[in-house]
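User: Fold this; C-alpha cells only.

Assistant: Input:
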Amino acid sequence: MRIIPAFAAPLALTLSCAFVSGAFAQGSGTPVTAASPDGSIVVSVSVDTDGRPTYTLTRKGKLLVGASSLGFIVADGPTMVRGNRITGSETASGQQTWEQPWGERRFVNDNHNDLLVKFEQVPEWGSRRMNVRFRLFNDGFGLRYELPEQPTMKTMKIADELTEFALTQNGTAWWIPGGEWNRYEQVYQKSAIDGVSTAHTPITMKLEDGTHLAIHEAALVDYSAMWLKRVTGTTFRSTLSPSPNGPKVVRDLPFKTPWRTIRIADSAKGLVENDLELNLNEPNKLGDVSWFKPMKYIGIWWGMIRGDWSWAEGPKHGATTARTRQYIDFAAKNGFGGVLVEGWDKGWNGNWFGNGKEFSYTQATPDFDLEAVTKYAAKKGVQLIGHHETGGNIANYEAQLEDAMKLYDKLGVRAVKTGYVADAGGILAPGDTPDTYRMEYHDGQRQVQHHLKVVETAARYHIAINAHEPVKDTGLRRTYPNWIDREGARGMEYNAWGQFANGPDHEPTLVYTRMLSGPMDYTPGILSLEGANKVPLASTLAKQLGLYLALYSPIQMAADFIENLEAHPKELAFIKQVPADWAESHLIAGEVGDYAIFARKDRNSEDWYVGGVNDATARSLSLTLEFLDPSKTYTATIWKDGEGATYETDARHRIAYQTLTLKKGDVLPAWLAPGGGLAVRLHPAK
C-alpha cells in the first residue's frame, strides 16, 4: 500500500500494462473484456454489425448494463458512431492510498483496473480515431473518451455525446429535471426508473433486485456538463448542456472528456461510502493548502433572505460596518472562524438578477468600511468571508477578478462565496463585454471554463472558493483543494419563502443524491425554525443539529440571526463543538429518501459524533456503536427529539437532552420524530 500526502506530486501508479495487437474486423463481435480487482464487475467491449462501439457491464455474474452505444455527433462531419473497428487495447492497474487535506475521511483508497480500447472508423466514415478508457473499481466504474492527435481531425466540434446506459432492470429513481430555469435548485422527484425524463446527475436508483446505482460524472473540465436523457424503457443516453454557439463542445485535439460514472452497491451505505469520483480526478495540483482551515461561520445573510434587511443600500441595508462588528464579536465569543457579509459592495441597487453589470468587487458601499472591518476581525481572531455575486455576468466578474482576489489577499480574506443568480447562465465567450448579455446554460462549456478560472486565480492568492448557483461538483476538489464547497441544490434559503418549502424528506434525499457529488453549503442552524412572516420549517430543533452530520461541508454555517442562536444556548453548544473536518465517516443507518444517521470521527481529537436526519415518518432505531475504540469509555452527550415532537406543529421545538456512558458494541436507542433528527457527541472519558 502506498500512502501519498495531499500535497505530493502525481505519481505513476501503473502496476502492469499489456498491449493487445492486431485489428478486429468491423462487426466481428470479438469482445475485449476487463474486470474489477475483486472480479465482481466485468466490462465487455465490442462493435456490432454496423460498426457501432458498444459495452456491457455485469456484476456478480448478472447483467447490469446491456449493450450500450458509445460515440459522438459532430457538427461538421459524419457521426462518430458507425463504421468503427477495434484496432487494439491496453490494460493496466493501479493501487494506492492517498490523503485528503480536508474531507469526510482523511485517507482514500484507490484500487482499480483499466481497459483502453482503440477504435478507428473505416475510410468511408472518415478514418477518425477515438479511444475509450474504462476504469473498474470494486464498487463501480467510469469511462471516458480520449481523442488522440490525428490527420483527419484537428478540432472537434461536438453537437452531442451518445454514451448509453442500458439498464437491465426497472426500479425506483430519485432525480431532478435537467435544464430547468432554476438550475439544480429543484425538489427531488421519486419515480419508477422508466418514468424519468431528462435528469441532472447524480441520479440515484434502486433496482428491483435491491442493487443501488448512482450515475454521475467526474473531472468536468473544459466540457459541457452531462444530463441524462431516458431514451426508452430503462435505457438512458448522455446529452450535453447546450451552447447558443451551436456545437456544445469545441476542443482542439488531443483531449480527454470527463468520466461517465456509475457507483454500484448492495445498499444505500455502499453508495455513500464510495470515493469513485474523487479517485477519477487528478491529484492535488496546488501543493500545500494549509492556509485554508475548515471552520464554522455565521453571517449577514439570513436577514436578507427573509427580507428583514436588504442587499441594496438604504435604511434596511444589511452589510453595515456596525452590524458586521456585532457579528464579529459574537463569532469571537463563540469560537466561529468566520463572518460572511453579503451586500458589502456596490452594484446591488438596481436590477442585478441575471444582469450584474453594475457590480464592483473592489468598491464598498458608503456605510461599509472593508479595511476597518477586516482589521477588526483579525484582532478578534476571526476571518471575514468575502462575497462576490455576479448575477450571471461572468464577463464583468472576469474583468475584475484579478484585482478582486488581490484585494482580498491584501486584507487577509481567505475564503470567498461566489454567486451566479440567473435563470440559466452568463456571458458566452472571452471578448464579450460586461454590457453584452447573451444567455448560456449555467453548466455549459463556457461556464465550466469560467468556474475553473476563478478557482485557479483564487488559488494564486491563497483564497478558497465556495460557489453558489454553481456548475455541479464532479470531484475536482481533489485536484483543486481550494474549491471547498458548492451549493448546487435547493438549500435552506427556500425555507424562508414558504411553509415547508423544503419538505421533511428533502434533506434525507439530498444525502443519497446531491451529496454523492461532494460537499454542500446547505446553511443549517435555523434554531428559531422560522422563515419570513413566521412560516415554519419542516424540521424539529434536533434536526437542525443533525444537519451538521448529515450534510458534509468543510465550512458549516450557523445561519440564524445571532439573537436566535443566543436564545438556544444548549443547541448553540453543540454547534460550537461539532467539527467541520473528519478523519472517518460512516453511514450507520439509513435508506434513500427516508433517513440517514452517520458516525463521524473528528480529525483533530478522539471524539466521535453520531447523528442525522429523518423524513416525515417517525421511527425507532437501534444504533450499534461498533466504530468506537475498544480501549476507551465515552461520555455521550445527546440532543434528541422530545416526546411528541413533530415538524407539523409547534411541537417542532420540543427537544430532549441526555448523558450516557457508552463503549464499543453498545446499542444506542434513538427515536426520530417526523421531520426530526439526532445529534450525539461521544467524548473519551478521563
